[in-house]
Amino acid sequence: MAEKRRPVILDCDPGIDDAVALLLAAHAPELELLAVTAVAGNVGLDKTSRNARRVLTLAGTEVPVHAGAAGPMFGEVVTADEVHGADGLLGVPTPEPAFPLSEGAAWDVMWEMALAHSGELEIVATGPLTNLGIALTKYPDLPEHVKRIVLMGGATDFGNTTPAAEYNIYADPEAADLVFRSGIPIVMCGLDVTHKAYFTQEEIDRLEALGTPQAVFAAKTMGFGVEWHQKFLVPGAPMHDPCAMMYALEPELFTGVRCWVGVECQGRHTRGRTVTDAYSDAKSPHGPNVELITGVDRDRFVDHLTARLAAYGTP
Ligand code: RIB
Ligand code: CA
After folding, report:
1. pLDDT, position 313
2. pLDDT of residue 314
């Protein structure tokens, strides 16, 4: 008998890598993608909520897309359009949305769907965690109904936005702090693993050679990252957000460690840093709250992600 599809919400800020994560989710037989919730991040909310619908149109499917926060719970808006381009998708040709934005704020939809699928709902979060932070504040009982959060964010020993902080956490540390302290089981796919989950230029060329609109889009958007990430000594384009989605789909490709992770919100140099006791003898009195993903079987990751995009069918 076919496995029951797992109910999932993707909370994202598309964003070139969010877009690939969305293509994976939209076509994954394991998942029932209940909704996509958009948040301001890489680019503004107007663009992220439109890009989510553009990418779903490219995927040939219609999933309710709900707008969420237009900025962090506190602090200044920090975008990443230098990486994702002014439109958020590097100007790569992408269909116009075939359907309108759905009514209902992201945090309200998260609550409603958590109640409707109590204990089963998974949230994959690939942008700043503002929508979840607001949902946790408005609905204190949310943790009782959410099975887990698989998120792309953080890092144990370096940042990509400041020397100390990865973008998704840095963009809204207070929201991230609420999420990491919520008690909801968290899987954290930070830079430790996403910098290992890269595609080389040859593998990106192989993706493009598939010729399907979805594979060509992924190659054209993610290919940008090969050169960009050389300064991080990564020999290819890290698939940050697709890594979190692939964990949700195929956790056996990954390794990790249970540990405590906290979010620094005050540090002059360290605001937005995820602090962990994973590699410390001094364990946090708070106890482990995160499955910190640190390793990936990269060859299988590349092959399986490529196969999932190829499964969209012939060009
Ligand atoms: O640090 C990488 C993360 O920041 C990814 O989610 C990317 O989309 C950007 O939001
Ligand atoms: Ca993102």
Report:
1. 81
2. 63
Q: Which residues line ligand 1 (CB under 6 A)?
A: 13, 15, 17-18, 41-42, 80, 126-127, 152, 160, 166-168, 240-241
Residues 6+ apart with CB under 8 A from 160: 166, 167, 191, 232
- Ligand minimally distant from the alpha carbon of residue 160: 1
Handedness of CA 268, 269, 272, 277 (dihedral sign): negative
For residues 28 and 228, which has the higher predicted lDDT (pLDDT)?
Answer: 28
Task: Say which of 66, 195, 240, 286 is annotated catalytic.
Answer: 240
Query: Mind listing the domains of the chain with CATH numbers?
Result: 6-313 (3.90.245.10)
Mean pLDDT across 184-190: 98
| Mutation to probe ligand 1, out of 126, 129, 232 (largest number of atoms < 8 A from CB) | 126
Structure tokens at 283: 């364990």
- The stretch 94-120 carries a mean pLDDT of 97
List the one residue out of 260, 124, 119, 241 whose CA is nearest residue 180: 260
CA-to-CA dists, residue 128 to 13, 79, 88, 207, angstroms: 8, 10, 15, 28
Sign of the CA dihedral 256, 260, 265, 270? negative
CA distances from 292 to 58, 122, 192, 234, 253 (A): 32, 17, 9, 20, 14
- Protein residues placing their CB within 5 Å of the ion ligand 2: 13, 15, 18, 126-127, 241
Q: Which ligand is nearest to the CA of 194?
A: 1
Shortest CA distance to 238 belongs to which of 126, 163, 131, 150?
126
Q: Is 240 a catalytic residue?
A: yes
List, for residues 243-284, the tens digit of each pLDDT value.
Answer: 999 999 999 999 999 999 999 999 999 999 999 999 999 999
pTM: 0.97
Q: In the structure, what pLDDT confidence band is assigned to residue 102 with cuts at 50, 70 and 90? A: very high
Q: How far does the centroid of ligand 1 lie from the alpha carbon of residue 1, in Å?
A: 37
Q: Cα(126) to centroid of ligand 1, in Å?
A: 7
